[in-house]
Amino acid sequence: MANVRVIRRRIRGIQNIAKITKAMEMIATAKMRQARERALAGHPYAEKIQQVIADLAALPETGRPLHPLLQRRPVARIAVVHITPDRGLCGGLNINLNRLTADFILKQEVPVALINVGRKGLEFMRRYRRDIVAEFTHLGDRPSLLDTLPISRVVIDYYSQGYVDLVYLAYAQFVSTTVQRPVLRELLPVEPASIPTAQNVDYIYEPGPEQVLGALLPRFVEMEVYHAILESIASEQAARMVAMRNATDSANGLISDLTLLYYKARQEAITKEILDIAGGAEALA
Amino acid sequence: MAGLRLDIVTAERAVYSEEVDMVIAPGVEGQLGILPHHVPLMTVLVAGELRIKKGGEEETLAISGGFLEVRPDRVVVLADAAERAEEIDVARAEEAKRRAQERLAAKYAPGVDVARAEAALRRALARLKVAEMARKRKR
Fold first, then answer.
1. A45, A56, A219: which to substitute to probe chain B, counting the most B Cβ within 10 Å?
2. ipTM score for this prediction
């Protein structure tokens, strides 16, 4: 019976798929761990820089105008830095991210410009003809700070030139291996009040508080963007890891179902053959 | 004598974290020597060598600008990039130096950002100097 051969071929095909998804799961696990470690390695820097900005912002008013990156202006145009993976096969992560940003855009009364990072978000936003002002793809699985600087450069330039008045950062927050939450939060203007103020030490600032703050703020933005990207990579890999584990599990389930079917079909074929032989012998006798 | 805890961190990693005796850093207003019990200070750093003295030994790191926070018992360097001598890619630094010099030579050509070229040159020179010093010390 042909059925037996067909089933056997399917089982073999599914076994190969299971091998691939298993390998992808293991690769994703390793990459996720790496991305998380890299994100953690930057924490001391992040904490320090936030503390210093908070200290500086807490200084008595000098009467001079605020640094441009701290100024809150009437909003005529918003920018969203939309960070997505380059690749699929990571469950609902891409869809959730795209939906979050798309919903946000639809709710705004002012035009929204998109700064797109990652191919999946780019394809989506292109299809819906959103206003994409800058795009960055193929950052790889382990971008260095240097690789992400062009992105922060664009953000800072647009903001300080007054092209946009509010900048949001949309990315997949890494909550745990099983939970990745798409989030959208304000990046610019920098809100020093949201940063917990540290112990107040009276520092001498060289050359002066404004210059130090002026040099620190762009670094802060660069670091925020870099971190969001690392976190989004960790989320992508975690999502892929889970998706691939599910795929492997269902492939294995399918294999055991088909194996059962295969044995049944084989048994049937053998029984039929014996019946044939027995029938033939009887006819001869 | 009370110690001085030195932490050098970048956005990518913690580079250095140890008790030291003295730190000499390239501040925007000139070289800064910091000993324990220094008055609290916060300053911008330029690209250059950061020298660390510790029990008679001296180590030098190349840093590409950043910030320095000083408290009586602690020094924190927030560097844009920081490398120990053995981590420096000399060939790459040479290449960067050559490119920066070329751009500076064509100063008045359109599209040359003099300030950026100068900053790049300073970074390359700092790296080369640190690598050179470490080589000499080894001998």
1. A45
2. 0.77
